[in-house]
Amino acid sequence: MAEEFYSLVTDYGAEKQLKCLQEGTPFDVYQIALGDGNGRYYEPTTDQTKLVKEVWRGLIDKCEWADDRFYCITTVPADVGGFTVREAGVFDDEGHLIVISKFPETYKQTPDSGTVKQLTIRIELLLSNKELAELVINPNMQMVTKEELDKITEDIDATYQKIEEKGKANGYAPIGENGLIPLEFIPEISTKSILTPFCLNSCKLDTRGNPDLLSSETVKVLKYTSSHLGVFYTALGTVLEKDTVVYSDTELSQELNTIVAINKETKHISFGEIETLSEFEDEPQHYSGSLTGDFYVKETLAVGVECYSDVEFLNRIGVVTYLNLTKICISEDETYTENGEITTHIYITAHAPFTYTTASSQTHNVEEDLIIDVVDLCPEASQTKNFNLFVSFEDEEYSLTALSNQIFTQMLEPEDYNPNDIWFKILEPLASYIYLLNMWQETNLVPVGVFTLEGE
Fold it and tell me: Cα separation of 391 and 366, whole Å?
C-alpha cells in the first residue's frame, strides 16, 4: 500500500456529493493544495479535513474527462518552488477538503535553480455517480490554462500589432471611442505633418465608416415688438408663455429677457426675473425683494399694483407682474404685437473634433463645432447651386467659408478658371491659391465637404 498512489473522497466530500445529487445543486470545486507530508509518505484517510503539511495552494484551472475519469487541474507557477509534493487535496469554495490524494513524490525547483518550469497537477475527482459531473462547477471561471493562454497570445500576435511598432512602416492604429484615430497614434516628423496635405484627415464616422462631419438645420425666426422692451425674436413656432426666453437678434444668440406673464387675448406681456419676496411686519406697505431691494406700495400688494423705491412714492420702479406668496416680479405690464416678419437661417455645422492639414503641411486639430449661415447664398426660385465648404485658421480662430467654385489639383496653373476658384499646386513646395482680384493669392483654405442649395 505504501508504494501505491491514489485519491480518496473525504467524509465531507461524500456527504456533499449525496446532497448535490438529491437536490440538484452545484457541486463546486475551487482550489488544489499541495503538501510534503511533513517529510514522508502517509496513508490518507477519509476523515481528514486538511493536509498534513500544506506548502502551496492555487485555484483550479479547469476540470476535464480523460479515459472515463474526471480530473481537476491546476498549474504551479514557475516562480514558485523549493518543496517536494507527496500529498494533494481538492477544496470547495468554502475551504472544505473534498478529495485527499497520496501523490507521487515530485520536487518543484526553486526559481533560482536554472531549470525553472511550471508544474501541472492533475487530481482525479472520484464521483459516486456520473450524473454528478453535470453538477460540477468551477467558481474560478475567469482563469485559463497555460495552453489556452499560449493560444490567446498567439492569436493576439497574429492579429494585432505591438504598441512599440505604432507609427512605423506598415503600422496601423486603433479607432477611439469617438470613431477617430487617437492623436498619439499619428506619427509626425519635425519639418511638416505626415498627414495628407490640403485634406480633411480625421473626423467622426457614420455606421458605414464614411465621414460624418457636416449637418444642416433650417431655422425660421419671428419678429415681435413690445411697448417697453422693444423688438424681440423667437424661433418660428415658439409658444409664448411663462419662462419663455426671447432674443435681441435673429440668430437667437443674445438672450434679451424672460416672459413672466402673458395674456394672448389682451396682447399684454411682462418680462423680468422672479425674485424672493420678504415683508416688514410693522410696516404693511414696506417690502423687500432679493433683486430689487426695498420697495413700497400705496395699497395692498397684488398683481398690477405700482411699486416705488421710496416711502414718499416719488420714484416708480414698475408694477407687480407676478406674485406668489414668497415670490414676486416687478417689471412693466406692456403690450406686444406680432410683426409677421420671418427671417430664415440655414446653418451648416462642422462637428468637432476633426483634423485637417493645409497645403503647406500644417496640421490643425479643431476642438469645437464650427457653424456657418448660408441662407444668403441661396439661388433664385427653382434653381440649384453646388458649393464647396472650406475651413481656415485666421487670427487664432477657425471658421468656415462656402464657395461656389472649382478646385484644381495639378502641377501647372489652370487655364480655364474663375474668381474664387482654388488651385492646389502638387509640386514641391506644395501650396494652395485662390483666384481673387485678377490674380492667384496664397490661401490656407482646406476643403472639408460639399453641399447643395435649392431656391424656393
Answer: 10
